[in-house]
Structure of Cytochrome P450:
Amino acid sequence: MSATFPFTTPRSLDNEPEAQTLLASEGPVVLAKMGPIDIWLALSYAACKQVLTDPRFSREEATRPGGPVTIPSAANPLVLTSMEGGKHARTRKLVASAFSPRMVATLEPRVQAIVDALLDAHPADLVAGLCTPLPTMVICELLGAPYSDAPDIRRWTGVLMTSVLTPEELRQAENDMQGFLADLVEEKRVRPDDKLITALVEAHDEGGHLTSAEMLANLQMLLAAGHDTTVNQLGNSLLTLLRHPAEMRRLIDDPSLIDTAVDELLRYSRLMAATLPRVTTEAVELAGVRLEKGAAVLPILSSANRDPSVFPDPDRLDLGRAGAAPLAMGFGPHYCLGAQLAKLELRIALTSVLKRFPGLRLAVDESELAYRMETNVRALVSLPVTW
Ligand code: HEM
């Protein structure tokens, strides 16, 4: 066994040949070392999709003590991503009834207003001036919290999405965020509004409400899952466009391409190498490889999204690409609950940047761009631009 995870190639938008090379040279399912444990990497689109949809690959099993962990804060048994089957379906339905498409649609004018205000300041660094503040300001709108809370939310979510952190650091960030959320929930109980927390407090089914602990844990997860991902997908999307001037021009000339463009940028820019690990509940065959009960499995989204059997000419950016959905936001029962919101932010931010600054270009040589190393996602430190 020679493969290891996390992959070791230096981070840049192009560099991550390991997953694709492994898929091409060793096949769709490969055994690797992740720290002290053995883990199967699901590298092809079909293998990833099976792991994400087949109930024999369990998130619940993966969060038991000793299980494979890639993000320590995601191992909390009360959160959606740690549940399976009926329990997951019930909790997801309650959370989804509050975080509804209607609630997201009502945010559209607010997202546009936030983006316009951020661009009015003519940010010389798009990471600091647009990508970082936008998702937390939108989260404040969603929760019904003042924008003055945005910097704290940003700090806590930063810690919660860190891949390597001490138990004390994790506990401290969780305590801080849970304290903030508990106060906000109390406030909404006294003064209900038309935002997500009030809707979550009021959500119920025949089995009753979410308990306070379930509500707080899932709110925290919503914030953590929705922050780093959106910030960095926006940064990576902008850089990808800057590196492909002809495709960028195509989008400027035909803004109606924006929906397929957002999907293609999710596929192409490889935000995360992997999503959360699973553990098998029984012996199971995955793309011709027999896995025993209790095997750890990691869906490698970055290679699945460049699988040539599903995406012809996979290393080419094509903002009009049709066909299979990329797996960047997962698939099946745990499919990203915030997908509609994230895509709304990406759509509005990219459209507005290109409309306002059609001559946008990098202000530094691309080799000077740096990536943060403490997180699981491909995260630009800064994106200096001029126009
Ligand atoms: C570009 C931005 C985003 C990306 C790439 C992304 C990606 C993902 C992926 C890959 C999963 C599947 C996890 C798995 O099955 O292992 C997921 C789940 C989830 N995402 Fe997102 N996400 C994004 C934005 C958001 C936002 C904005 C929110 C909320 C505000 C959010 C909330 C969630 C939640 C709650 C789940 C868990 C659903 C469940 O377990 O049933 N995400 N996301």
Summary: The domain at 72-269+315-386 is CATH 1.10.630.10 (Cytochrome p450). Residues 94 and 204 are 7 Å apart (CA to CA).
